[in-house]
Amino acid sequence: MSEGLNYTFLIDTFFIALSGVPITLLVTIVALLIALPLGFLLALTRINQVPVLNWFSRIYVSFVRGTPIIIQIFIVYASVPLILSLFFEKYNININVYNINPIWYAFIVFSFSTTAILIEVFRSALSTVNKGQLEAAQSVGLSNFQAYRRIVIPQALVVALPNICTATVNLIKATSLGYAMSLQEITLKAKVAANVGYNYVEAYIDIFLVYIILCSLVEYGFKIYEKRLRRYKYVSA
Amino acid sequence: MLKINDIHKSFGNNEILKGVDLSIDKGDVVVILGPSGSGKTTLLRCINFLEKADSGQAGFGDLKVNLHGASKRDIHTIRQKTAFVFQNYNLFNNKTALENVTEGLIVGRRVPKADAIGIGKKALDKVGLSDKYDSYPSQLSGGQQQRVGIARAVALNPDIILFDEPTSALDPELVGEVLTVMKNIAKEGTTMLVVTHEMSFAKDVANRVIFMDGGVVVEEGSPHDIFVSPKEERTKKFLKRVLPEDYTFYI
Ligand SMILES: Nc1ncnc2c1ncn2[C@@H]1O[C@H](COP(=O)(O)OP(=O)(O)OP(=O)(O)O)[C@@H](O)[C@H]1O
Ligand SMILES: [Mg+2]
Are B226 and B209 in contact (CB under 8 A)? Predict the structure, then answer.
């Protein structure tokens, strides 16, 4: 054990942790790209009580929200290769499932869990937009699609944005669990560096700093965007 | 110009419209009176397909559509020929007054943007809001919002405008400005179907009054017929309740 903090290591490892940011962001962005539209569509099925799909989203949401992400990771990481190898064997496809980059599993797990959260976010946001807005749009000759795109969604988005921001920040933080499937993200990279000389405290400080910077930047970005979207509400208070 | 035949509508087991017929000519200002729950709103909503009737036909000039099984295209066509003014305005909250008025023109009817803005400004001028083009609904009083609502309908230049109690959500001191605007557009020959509790409007502006109760048209006629010499017992009872004791009808 060394006495005090190893500052050189602290600084070096900060950059190692930083080098995990692209992977963290990639997983976050892919998960959002899948979860935003999917969550929105499934939220619509709940609001409009579309048969079957409405039930599906409800069960899906309670299933995903009722289990820890780490367990979802274990389930996907353990079961998907099994299913794939059975499938590959059956069709004589020559791919070794254990060589698959763990980032694919990360995409799956985090899209799944974020979709569930966004279903609820969009559902509550859409329900704050009075039904009269849609009806007025229809009455002036807009199609359902146009009415949603131009009238309903912009209003729902303003309401949803703070929650989408929270979901995004939670997602960024949750990707740190990716180390459980050897995903080369921030946490894993710093921890691996720490393994060599047992400089865990320094590594954890670095991880801490990187997440704080990353999440603050994301929150700041959302705030600016929200301000722009809220223009029409400026004087309503 | 607009003919409605035998329209039926139930919510669950509750039959709200029990076979209503309606016929409106170009330039008519028709007022529908009736106690709360008699199905007035439901009737207007069915005409504009905001509610799907269980059965019934609508005729718009040569166009005949089934109110229950109308195709998307027919619904779109009818909505192009009608405009709706809502009880609680339903202005688009995320659009300015001018954008509220031009939205249906630009997006719904593909009018070029510059033309639409011209039409929109003229419509807002007509309802006395030339200084509010860029205000959002949250910046307007109830009366101003409803006037934008009327401008939004007028700008579409529809064959008929449907009004559902346009003044009943307003503070009493704001009712006058909206009624004045409605009188003005009636004078210009706009065809209007108006549900209202404003007897003065019915008396002064309407050329026909329909009294509805329990999902049917009980009686209809000129304002004079209905207010001075109603035939049906239910009409008399209703008028007695809504008109002041010493109300007399001048013509
Ligand atoms: N979407 C709905 N679902 C179930 N019942 C409804 C629905 N809309 C209206 N009703 C019922 O239909 C009846 C008639 O309603 P409607 O709004 O047409 O009456 P109205 O004549 O406009 O009354 P008011 O003067 O109070 O506006 C009411 O009893 C109402 O409860
Ligand atoms: Mg009503």
Answer: yes
Q: Are B104 and B152 in contact (CB under 8 A)?
A: yes
B215: Cβ below 6 Å to ligand 1?
no
State the total domains in chain A: 1
Beta carbons of B88 and A233 less than 8 Å apart: no
Taking the C-alpha atoms of residue B249 and residue B222, their distance in angstroms, rounded to an integer, is 12
Rounded (to 5) percent helix, strand, coil in chain A: 85, 0, 15
Cα(B36) to centroid(ligand 2), Å:
7
* Residue nearest ligand 1's atom 30 by CA: B37
How do beta strands B208-213 and B29-33 pair? parallel
Strand order in the sheet with B82-85: B82-85, B160-164, B192-195, B29-33, B208-213, B216-221
Whose CA is closest to A4, among A205, A203, A201? A201
φ, ψ of residue A122 to 5 degrees: the values are -70, -35
Q: Is the ipTM of this complex over 0.85?
A: yes
- Ligand 1 atom closest to the CA of B42, numbered from 1: 18
B167 lines ligand 1 (CB under 6 A): no
Quote the pLDDT of residue A100. 85
Neighbours of B70 (CB within 10 A): 18
pLDDT tens sequence across B131-164? 999 999 999 999 999 999 999 999 999 999 999 9
Instruction: For the domain made up of B2-242, give the CATH fold.
Output: Rossmann fold (3.40.50)
How many residue pairs from chains A and B have C-beta atoms closer than 8 A? 75
Asked if residues B190 and B161 have their Cβ atoms less than 8 Å apart, the reply is yes
pLDDT for position A237: 37
Minimum-distance CB partner of B103 among A140, A158, A233: A140
Cβ separation of B90 and A133 shorter than 8 Å?
yes
A65 located within any domain: yes
Q: What is the pLDDT of residues B112-128, one digit of tens each?
A: 999 999 999 999 999 99
Share of chain A above pLDDT 90, in %: 65
User: Can you give the CATH number for the domain in which A180 is found?
Assistant: 1.10.3720.10
Question: Could you tell me the residue ranges of all domains in chain B?
Answer: 2-242
Residue A88 pLDDT grade (very low, low, confident, very high; cuts 50, 70, 90) = confident
